[in-house]
Amino acid sequence: MGEHHVTLQIDENNMVTSVGDYxxxxxxxxxxxxxxxxKQTQYKTSTHIDMRSGYVEGVGQLCGICYTKGSxxxxxxxxxxxxxxEQYPNDMELGAAVRQYYWENYKNDIPNHHAGYHxxx
Length: 121
Fold this sequence. Notes:
Layout: E1 8-10, E2 16-19, E3 22-24, E4 30-33, E5 40-44, E6 55-56, E7 60-61, H1 64-68, H2 82-87, H3 91-107
Antiparallel strand pairs: 1-2, 3-4, 4-5, 6-7
């Protein structure tokens, strides 16, 4: 038995206004739309979520642009070295090391309130 996922459109009053978020092509096949930007994705609604890229559990299907590069909603991702996770099994220390890595590699500065984290790695 597989899982079935359906997108719900919810209005400002938290009322469901429609079930499913897809478009139908000329040959009758339906494709999921991106839950952020609304554009049609490459995935048929019949394609299992394990066989897709850009599907977020509990959210729905995202197009390639919204999934990888962000969108007007500000979804962005950073990459961190694997050794940080292996070196810091304590979540608090790992979080500090990730923040330090972020500021050094993405912002080129460490804010003053993170001054105590300078020597983690």
